[in-house]
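Quick look at the format.
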Amino acid sequence: MRSYINIDSIDPKNAADIISQEMKKQNALLDNIKNKITVQNLKPNCSRKIFAVDSGLNIAYESPFTVIKSAVVDDEINVEILKNLYLFHENNYNSERLKRLLMQINLYQAINKKIENINEDSLFLVDGTITLSVFSPTHKDSKEYQNLFSSFIEEIYKPLISDCIDKDILLLGFLKRTGSTLLSLSLNVKEIYDIYILNHFLKKNGDYISPILIPNTSSSQWIDQVYVTFFLNLNDWNYRFELIEQQKNKYLECIENLLFWSTRTHFGMNPIFSKADEYSRVTKREAELLFNQIFSHLSDDKKAKFRIRAQKKTHFGFEFSDSYKKIMK
């Protein structure tokens, strides 16, 4: 339920009664929508080559130096990694929003690079949402952030979507720990999260709820994006997936392939996805080694500047004229 009750200081007997009452309310809500839910089932089938894509980041020496890495892994566990290193201006030292956007850009660059040489039917399973509304600039974002987002949309995202449609490559967002209310709102139930509905109705492996359309509710001038989302039980784990609207008629094929690659040992997901997570992860040691590699090539006077300014803010605080600067690919 969306509301919560603090039962820490309540008498245990009364707390038990409260829990029982809340469970009854939840079950009543679920009973009210059972006639609105149509659960169907599919069997595993492999019709596409599958790729899993993930990204990660870490900082070196608690400094503005950040490593962002993306990994693309195929069903034969071939791995391709795209790595970018950034130095952030001190004014943006705590700009997690900017870093998250750069992670997204890095991830889509990795996909773009991979599909250049792909002609066969494929499915790219992306960790997280494939929608961009969360990254859309607001009035609080700097002009630089707005320009970065705009160039990302025009130079990377739109060409990628076009290529996926032309080559029949499916781009599928995968949300493992969904706290959404998309399904409940579509059923006109406002007091319950989607996960309660899924756990109640999706009982068997292969059970799914057909896609629902998610309209573009953003008032932003930056994006005009509509997508569909569907829900699936993979070996007793319920997940949400996202497809762009132009590929919504392929969702059954997505489900068949997901079921084919799912395993109980990987919590319902395929080992390909676990490998993508493993190879995209950036450790602090890796980030610091990469920084040391660059630091060793600086002139003595620049090294001195890093060390002097480190006394003020970080181990290696160096002020750049730009808010961030890519210094290595």
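Next, a different chain entirely:
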Amino acid sequence: MANILEHYKVLGINIGAGLGDVTSSYKRLCRIYHPDVNDNPESEEQMKRINIAYSALRDKLKREMAFRQRQSYPGPGRRHASHGVRAETETEANSALFSYFKAIGECDYTGAYIYLSNHDRRSISLESFINWRKSVSRLYPMREFRIKGGQPAITVSFGDGRSCIGFRFRVMISEEDIADGSVNSGEVEKAVIYENGTWKVFLGYQSVGDLTRGFDERFEARRERDITKRWEEYNSGIYPDYNMLSLTGMRKAVLKELYRQKRFGGTLTFAAISVKTGSVRGAGEDELLRSAARTIVGALRETDIPTYAGDGVFAMLLVELRKKNAEEIVGRLIEKIRKNAGPQLGGKARIEYDIMSWSGQGPADIDALNTVLRKFRKKM
């Protein structure tokens, strides 16, 4: 065993690599160390070690492949009804699929990538696969899975004329929705194919876009649903006098938007407007604040989040808007607040604002909004 491990090390490949990986690595090393292209005196000795490792692993993998093929294709023994495949091979395919999902559940995305078919790995790089899985796990971390088999063997055909035998499995997956803490369960189908002497999970991805499309559509559908139901979902957090979220209600809304920004990137801008009549609070100030609330809610986009934080302070989360643009929008809002409040009340009002932007650097949560609000409370 020690010699075999050393052979993998010499060729610079992982234990369990297929024959195609062994051959590719051998050819790559030949272009580096072959004496015809490398004048280093040590290259000849290194090339000998490479040849020995390649021959040993090639023979080992060919023997294993022949053994597995004798098991997988028609021959003596118990066979699968539809394809002449030995029933024991379904257990091996199931094991490969289990290892793939186990690695995902443990956030070992490099380990999961190893179990993907060569077709998938040619279409999707390791870096793209890891980034995709990290994005999914931020919003929908997998809690448990259960594999169901028992389906007939299948033949998977590729565009270049190749084909492999395989099995299709149904996988029950339970995952958490980070935004609201709920746990959802669903069933997906996964195919496992036999190629290069091993069982590999076949997802059929053609590109990075193909990889992420299902998740993006799923996320955007949920986001649209969240936008239309925002007020109902956070009804307990609405400030009744102004039909705005309270600071408590805004916490959930901000955190949801943060998870979206971490997935897709973008800018979050927190803005706050302090509205005061400059006199003792009374009917005049209540009228001014109600007018300001109507103005703000009417002027912001549907994706933005307005809040009444108390003490005459309105807070806003402006989505996909940088600080420079936010200052322009807030300036127009203040003009509208004065105009809508009427000349007598608007002229007496003292209105101030502050803005803070976050564009993916460092933590951004409800504390960022509280920082803006604390500046006002020091002034008031």
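The two ends are 76 Å apart (CA to CA).

See the schema section for token definitions.
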